[in-house]
Amino acid sequence: MATTRPRVLQYGKMPLTQLDAELAQAYEVSILSEQPDPERFLAEHGGQFEYAVTSAAMGLPAGVVDALPNLKFVSSFGVGFDALDKDALLRRGARVGYTPGVLDDCVADLAFALLLDATRGLSESDRFVRRGDWSQSRFGIRTRASGKRLGIFGMGRIGSTVARRASGFDMEVAYHNRRPVEGSPHQYLPSLLELARWADILVITAAGGEGTRHLVNAEVLAALGPQGFLVNVARGSVVDEAALADALESKRIAGAGLDVFEDEPRPLPALLALDNVVLAPHIASGTHETRRAMADLVLHNLQQFIATGRPAAEVPWSAAQ
């Protein structure tokens, strides 16, 4: 029997399992990753889909977009959009919704968790205790976080939330963006290199993509210096991971806290051997509250686009169409 429900192509299983069920309840959903032959499925059925759902981690490659000639809208779970093929989507004229705003607090919380862990050596001290080393020696003295200079690369929603957290630690905050943020109370520095020279701790909250690829390179890390710390809760591509591993190993920077990596889920092996870096498996938005809010916005974006032709939250380059 023919269905009157809109047909939705789901690129893969979503990070929140309830969202899979909620999408299937509201729409006629086909999950591409579950098809025995995804390429053949797209060739035979691609023209039936006007809507697609994916996540920031999965993205949507050009080959899939090109196989969906009637695609009008993509609802993506997450704030990153560098894995979505921008050129293919713009050629197709498809709009793209995402889930900003609802994860700012949790990402900022994790940025500070990594910051505190890196500066105070919490994960390293945990390993020290578990190995039984405490009975034989004292754990080394570390660096306090409060009162430090905090540099933020990317003063968007998440960067601004990190800056608010910093006030509770009596930190001085400065930032670098492509342009100054109107009304920001914090000092703007016109280059990332200047920000790194100024900061004791550099937190990355900038968007990923080719425009920011490897902007945190060996020169920036050298400017941060042997007493400096790096925290990345943005995208792994923003940091030259090999240069970072070398700077950590040679103690040209003091430490780092990373939630994201260039090749997830495979951090550079050199990082795994170092004690002065804290590694997390891309969990910044991984709380029940935030994932639920993100799922709700995925659904809301899809519902609103179908009803009005415009999602509640749209990626910047999509909205410019």
From TrEMBL:
The gene is tkrA_1. Residues 112-284 form the D-isomer specific 2-hydroxyacid dehydrogenase NAD-binding domain. Keywords: NAD, NADP, Oxidoreductase, Pyruvate. PANTHER family: 2-HYDROXYACID DEHYDROGENASE YGL185C-RELATED, 2-HYDROXYACID DEHYDROGENASE-RELATED. Its EC number is 1.1.1.79. It comes from the Bacteria. Gene3D superfamilies: NAD(P)-binding Rossmann-like Domain (3.40.50.720). This is Glyoxylate/hydroxypyruvate reductase B. Residues 18-315 form the D-isomer specific 2-hydroxyacid dehydrogenase catalytic domain. Belongs to the D-isomer specific 2-hydroxyacid dehydrogenase family. GO terms for molecular function: glyoxylate reductase (NADPH) activity; hydroxypyruvate reductase [NAD(P)H] activity; NAD binding. GO terms for cellular component: cytosol. Pfam families: 2-Hacid_dh, 2-Hacid_dh_C.
